[in-house]
# Entry
Amino acid sequence: MEGSEEDGKIRESLEFLRDWLNNCDQNAANDMDSEAQVAEVSDGNDELIEN
# Structure
């Protein structure tokens, strides 16, 4: 029984790490999308200012 308990704890830890890494990846993608949107808005403002 000890081995299966230990396996369960290891599996739970790995699932936690997988979920955490997935969240980090999603946050990084959202940050990149936000930066792209800011750049697009900035480009638009530059064009308006130049006119």
